[in-house]
């Protein structure tokens, strides 16, 4: 059930439920009956089953759930724990019935053998990525806009670019005048074709920087945050877990690693409260709520149960980034849209979304801080120097390769950033024609326009002592990588220079690249950013399930 933010009551301190209880809610897979749960897959184990299921999946399910089963928008991922822990019988029951009101068709018309084959294939996705990868191999019926032909495509018109031209140190600037008209190119279906990292592949940084592997074998590593004592907190979102890393060995690995909390519902945002050297709590943005655990410097494990701080709407864009104002009086939480570009006045699921919300961290009653921001859930952070709130935003899709730029910007209180009616200032979304002319001039042009579809996620302000002085205070941001562009873009870490002014000029630079192979296959996807106590930059990567460490050597 969706909770209207306006009606949210202050809920803090009422529920001191242990997290395990909070999680008990969706044990049942779409309310499948027990009889379905117990039903066994009669074709399980037959050599041809998964293979046949793969073909049926490509024909019937891929268009919504994606090549690798990753889902997008309001279509859920099939790689999650939720599908993994469901029994084959429950999945069979669900796909037979569908969930029409929510956009999942019923598949009862397929012969039951075919439905079981699909179940075998779907169940193989989460546990063995290789099964999903096999789908990415060239096949006769591949989309003509797939990377296998597009890779020979001519270079994109400047200032737009793609992975073939990303190079550490290259400076780029996209301005409002560079935007093409909508639909100049068609909307591409080009999700990340993920492969294991080949032995000779490694991230590439500018001259003078060295890249090492800090941690590996993680499970969906996403947002990171450095605690005041230097410990590194990491959200492993799909695993429902927060980990802590401590110290650094001489070869650049953590001295210790521990699970701080588990059993959480897709945790992402992490922030320490109150800000400053001596926090009492760590706040976590789960997909459905903000919670907090008691925390004191040095804790490697939550010392008490979670407290509930605020409810958040679920579904659609699921990441919930959080941060605090420098004086600790405000908590910010980002909630992205449910859909790509639905008008909230037509889709009730969009109510109170595509916003940054704010409240008093001790008695939280969420109010709108800024709106019309399609998906800021992948990253918000307060600039520790200026106190300004910044966000990293995934803009809308399906208008062509070079629309709409993602962006990084400081956020004006009460500011309107256009979604869904306008984009990048007063450009009308053609799907929302004629609506809200009064908002046209209110739509703010963001500070730094990024490559459209690059999927800008986590970022941090560099306050370390290790990088050259010119990097002081600059933003380092992850581009998780495109699916809606014929030749992929993003899949890198960028630097947004602030020139020690606290303000952006609109420019950004490629900083860490090399996550895409020359044939377009993807082995790495940056998500979270943190600065280690020694001043090196840590980058989480949820494709290779690792954390990379970038340090400056001057060589
Ligand atoms: C038209 C788009 C569309 C197609 C095609 C489609 N799905 Fe779905 N699917 C959805 C949506 C939307 C949901 C979410 C429904 C809900 O939450 O009630 C969903 C939910 C699911 C779920 C439940 C996942 C979860 O985490 O709850 C499974 C399993 C699933 N689909 C499998 C399939 C399979 C297998 C096929 C092909 C036979 C398929 N879907 C085809 C849109 C689609």
Task: Describe this entry's structure for a reader.
Strand 18 and strand 19 form a beta hairpin. The protein has nine helices and 27 strands. It folds into two domains: 31-135, Cytochrome c-like domain (Cytochrome Bc1 Complex, Chain D, domain 2); 171-552, Neuraminidase, CATH 2.120.10. By secondary structure, it is α+β, with helices and mostly antiparallel strands. The longest helix has 16 residues, at 112-127. Helix 7 (112-127) packs across helix 8. Residues 60-61, 63-65, 74-76, 78, 80, 82-83, 91, 94-95, 99, 102-105, 107, 118, 122 line the site of heme C (HEC).
Sequence-ordered SSE layout with sheet pairings:
Blueprint: H1 19-22, H2 34-38, H3 47-60, H4 62-65, H5 81-85, H6 88-97, H7 112-127, H8 129-135, H9 147-150, E1 171-173, E2 209-215, E3 221-226, E4 232-236, E5 241-246, E6 256-261, E7 269-273, E8 281-285, E9 289-294, E10 307-311, E11 322-324, E12 331-335, E13 355-359, E14 367-371, E15 380-382, E16 389-393, E17 405-410, E18 422-423, E19 427-428, E20 448-452, E21 456-461, E22 475-479, E23 492-496, E24 507-512, E25 526-531, E26 537-541, E27 546-552
Antiparallel strand pairs: 1-24, 2-27, 3-4, 4-5, 5-6, 7-8, 8-9, 9-10, 11-12, 12-13, 13-14, 15-16, 16-17, 17-20, 18-19, 21-22, 22-23, 23-24, 25-26, 26-27
Helix pairs in contact: 3-7, 6-7, 7-8
The structure holds heme C.
């Amino acid at each position: 059930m969706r909770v209207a933010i306006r009606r949210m009551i202050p809920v803090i301190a009422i529920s001191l439920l242990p997290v395990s209880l909070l999680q008990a809610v969706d044990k049942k897979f779409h309310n499948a009956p027990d009889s379905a749960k117990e039903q066994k897959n009669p074709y399980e184990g037959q050599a041809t089953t998964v293979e046949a299921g793969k073909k049926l999946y490509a024909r019937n399910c891929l268009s919504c759930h994606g090549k690798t089963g990753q889902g997008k928008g309001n279509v859920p991922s099939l790689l999650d724990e939720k599908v993994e822990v469901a029994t084959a019988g429950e999945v069979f029951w669900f796909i037979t019935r569908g969930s029409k009101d929510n956009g999942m068709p019923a598949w009862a018309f397929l012969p039951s053998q075919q439905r079981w084959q699909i179940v075998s294939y779907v169940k193989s996705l989460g546990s063995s990525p290789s099964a999903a990868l096999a789908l990415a191999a060239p096949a006769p019926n591949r989309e003509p806009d797939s990377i296998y032909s597009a890779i020979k495509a001519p270079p994109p018109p400047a200032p737009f670019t793609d992975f073939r031209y990303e190079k550490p140190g290259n400076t780029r600037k996209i301005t409002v005048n560079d935007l093409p008209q909508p639909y100049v190119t068609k909307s591409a279906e080009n999700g990340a074709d993920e492969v294991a990292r080949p032995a000779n592949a490694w991230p590439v940084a500018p001259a003078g920087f060295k890249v090492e592997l800090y941690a590996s074998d993680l499970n969906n590593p996403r947002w990171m945050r450095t605690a005041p004592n230097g410990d590194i907190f990491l959200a492993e979102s799909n695993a429902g877990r927060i980990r802590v890393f401590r110290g650094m060995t001489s070869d650049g690995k953590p001295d210790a690693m521990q699970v701080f909390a588990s059993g959480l519902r897709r945790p992402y945002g992490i922030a320490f409260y109150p800000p400053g050297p001596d926090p009492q709590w760590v706040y976590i943005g789960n997909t459905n709520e903000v919670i907090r655990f008691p925390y004191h410097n040095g804790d490697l494990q939550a010392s008490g149960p979670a407290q509930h701080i605020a409810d958040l709407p679920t579904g659609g864009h699921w990441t919930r980034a959080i941060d605090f104002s420098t004086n600790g009086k405000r908590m910010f939480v980002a909630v992205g849209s449910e859909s790509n570009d639905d008008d909230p006045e037509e889709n009730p699921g969009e109510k109170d979304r595509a916003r940054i919300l704010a409240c008093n961290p001790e008695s939280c009653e969420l109010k709108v801080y800024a709106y019309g921001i399609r998906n800021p859930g992948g990253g918000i952070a307060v600039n520790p120097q200026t106190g300004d709130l910044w966000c990293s935003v995934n803009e809308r899709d399906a208008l062509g390769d070079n629309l709409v730029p993602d962006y990084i910007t400081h956020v004006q209180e009460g500011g309107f950033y256009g979604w869904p009616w306008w984009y990048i200032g007063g450009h009308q979304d053609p799907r929302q024609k004629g609506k809200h002319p009064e908002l046209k001039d209110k739509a703010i042009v963001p500070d730094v326009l990024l490559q459209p579809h690059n999927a800008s996620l986590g970022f941090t302000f560099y306050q370390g002592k290790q990088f050259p002085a010119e990097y002081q205070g600059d933003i380092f941001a992850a581009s998780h990588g495109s699916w809606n562009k014929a030749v992929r873009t993003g899949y890198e870490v960028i630097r947004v220079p602030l020139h020690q002014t606290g303000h952006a000029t609109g420019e950004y630079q490629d900083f860490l690249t090399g996550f895409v192979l020359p044939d377009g296959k993807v082995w790495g996807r940056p998500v979270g950013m943190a600065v280690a106590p020694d001043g090196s930059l840590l980058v989480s990567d949820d494709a290779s399930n690792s954390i990379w460490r970038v340090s400056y050597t001057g060589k």
